[in-house]
Structures are given as C-alpha cells and as structure tokens.
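Ticket #471: bound-state structure for 2-oxoglutaric acid.
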Amino acid sequence: GHEFFSSTDQTAQLVEKKKYLLMSFSQYIDAEEKNVEAMKSAFQNLLPLYSDPVDPEEFTRDPVAAYKLLRKLRNELIYIVKHIRLSFYQCNEYQYELEFLEIPQPEDLNGAASGLIRLQEIYKLYPENIMMEMSLSADEAYHVGLVAYYEDKFQHAFLWFLYSFDTLTEYSTTNKKDLLHYLSFSANRFGSQHVAIHFCQQLLNLDPTNDEVKVQLSLYRWHHFIRTSNPDIFTLNTESSKYETLCRGEVDERTSKRQMALSCRYSTGGGNPRLMYAPVKEEVEWDEPRIIRYHDIISDREIEILKNISRPLLSRSETIGGVTNIRTSQSVFLDEGYPVVARVNQRIADITGLSMKSAEHLHVQNYGIGGKYEPHYDELDTENDRIATFLIYMSDVEIGGSTVFPKVGVALKPKKGSAVLWYNLHKNGNVDLNTEHAGCPVLRGNKWVANKWIHEYGQEFRRPCSLSYWK
Ligand SMILES: O=C(O)CCC(=O)C(=O)O
Ligand SMILES: [Fe+2]
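RESOLUTION: The complex was predicted; output attached.
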C-alpha cells in the first residue's frame, strides 16, 4: 500500500484528498435525499387505494379484464422495482472512490513517531524542545513513548511518558496505571532504579492489592541494591558522533577556516556555448574530495513542474537492503519523456562537461517526517560505476536536512536552485573513501532534492582516467 510518513509531501497531499472526499460526501447526501424523495412520491402513486379490484379472483373471470389487469400489474411492478433502487452509496462511483481511498495505517503513525524520536536523538531534544510550535496531547505523547519503548530507546520513552502523565486530562483515553507501569519499566531498563522504584510505588498506591506490582517493586529494590551505576534519566547525554555534530551545524574551526579559503567564480564550463551568455556561479565547497556548488542552475518554475510530475509517482526509496530505516524518503526516476527533465539533464551535461549517455534517470526525492539518509557511499562497486553525483536542491530546509560528509567534516546546507557535484571515484577508478555522506534528518521544512548519478562509460575523453595509484 501507500506510505505517508516517509514523505512530508504525501502527508500534506492527504489534506487535499480529505477535503475532496468531504465535498463528495456532501454531494452524496444531497443525491441520497433526492433519491428518497423520488421513492416516496413513487410509493404514494402506487398506493392501491382505488385502482385494484376488490376481489381479483372474481374480476379475472372476464378475460378482457384479466388481460388489462395483467398489463397494469406488469407496469406497476416494473415501476416499483425501478424505484426501490439500491441506495447511491452502494451502487455508484462513491464506492469506487472509497475503495481507492488510501487511509494512513498504524505503521504510518508509528513511522511518524519514530521520525520524531530520531530527531530528538540527533539534535539532542527533550520533548519540550521538539514541540516548538505545537504540543502533543497526553494520548499522543503516550503513543510516541510506546514507539520509543519498543525501539529500546528507554530514556526518550520515559520522558514522553512523563510528559503524558503531566498533561493527562479527564478527556484522555490513556490511563494512569498504564503510564505508571511504563514509567517504572522504562526507568528500570535505562538503569535508573530509584526512579523506577518511585513510579512503581505510586502504581502500588493506586492499586494496593496488586501482587504483581509488589513483586516488581521488590525486584527494583534488589536491582537498586546491586547496581553500581545510576544514570540520570532526566538529563540527555550530549555526546555525539561526527555525523550528528555536522548535522547540528557545529562545524569545527579548522574546517570552517579551510572552507573559507576556497574560492567562488563564474564558469562557462570550459567555454561551453550554452554557458557563454549565462555563466554559472560556481563555488568550491571543499578541496579533497572536491565538492563544487553551482548556484541558480534550476528555476523555481522548473522545480514546481518537477514536483508536480513526481507527486503521484513517488514511492518509498530503497537502499541495497531494500526498504530500511537507513533511508526515509520517497522518490521516482524521471525519464527524458518530460521536456523539463531533458532540459535539466542538458544543463547538467553543460555544467559538468560529462556525458549523460550512461547516467541514470533524474531521481527526484522528497523526505518524510524526520526524514534522512544515513551515511553511505553512492558508488555501487560495479563495472561502469557511479563516477560522480550531481545533487540538486529543490527546496530550502529551515532546520536540518544538510548533506554532510563525516569523514572530512563538511556540511552542505540545502539551498533551493543550487546543486553540488562530487566525484565518488578517484581517477584510477577506486572509490574515494572520503565521499561517504548522509542526508541529515529534516527538523523543520520540506526537503526535495534531485540526484543525477553519472557513470563511468562515456567519460573516457572528458575525465581521462589515471594509472596512478593516488589519483
Ligand atoms: O539528500 C541528501 O542530502 C543526500 C541524498 C543522497 O545522498 C542520496 O540520495 O544518495
Ligand atoms: Fe548519496
């Protein structure tokens, strides 16, 4: 079926679909009302008050009368059958519409909650920090807590359960006992025994005769007694990997100095006539591996057209392992049957000076809730490998969503209309290990990108290979 959490655009589209469905809902109510009116008056017409013979048996003794009666009955029966129609609901396109309606499934809600938790982990956020513009209700927070709990993320689970507990109202469907149970369980699993004991004790106060809780409590006391470490479940650990640091935009000083020393210029792609009159603005983002940013290489209008073509075609992006949590986005490969795609491909050829003959189709991609693509290489380890990646940013991203290279410490911020280019392979054909990169989780905004993966075949005279081990 259809997936919603892995593309924020799909989630947004759903609002339109609901509006549309609501409109037809109201149309069908009107139609149904007219139908009932029609049936009522047909019924009135047929009321056999005066028209039927009082004694049909007597009546049909006369063959002419019998004939007339038969005719009349036939007409009336057809009339009745015609008017006792199936209701509109059962017989026309409404059914069809409902049949093809894509309803978000529990997996979608779990995927979305999982996205929130991922954001918290990478960006080190408490529940209060991630609810910047909008708060979750106690029931919603309980759901997020459960998803975290079953992903073994006990600290986040605990913090969400605690938030849920604090915001419970008389309208909440989440019950206090379940919450206390999960609060003590997650504290225990995290290793904070005194906190586990505290909530377990509260649970016992609510439910004093529950023997299971009594056993649980004594177990926690025993754990507390034998444990040496007692981590603080209320404070998030702020240690982080290079990938996370880069995603948060904390670039170290050495990196930023080196990045500043790099240059910016106008390029005509080595004298390409199509670029002579409109040279492309080129900026060197990094030297090794060489990463070049090209500004304003696609217009907002072209971007809108690409998005509109892609929307109905998007499906969950895969990696070598199929659909996994490594990559939460939806995407589609677009061929040159679309004029805009042909135009963009030509522009990439002009800018890079590389042949597009063996390149893959343009790959348009939209990220989901907390959507990301964990560190990876684009290279496929095949003959005619992906020599270079041309990555077009089709949107700005308010917070998060940078493309980062953890091995060298570079973070590229999406800038709508710009693109970045790097070579995945050295000139001798070996993979450049420093090109490992990732798409950071999107914390705020909708991220759209388009990749053009350029392959080796056809580049023999454009990017000559080298026999040197080093290049
Ligand atoms: O979205 C990004 O920033 C990176 C995308 C990427 O690495 C890929 O699609 O291979
Ligand atoms: Fe990639």
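RESOLUTION NOTES: Residues 365, 373, 378, 403, 437, 439, 449, 451 surround 2-oxoglutaric acid (ligand 1) (CB under 6 Å).
TICKET STATUS: resolved
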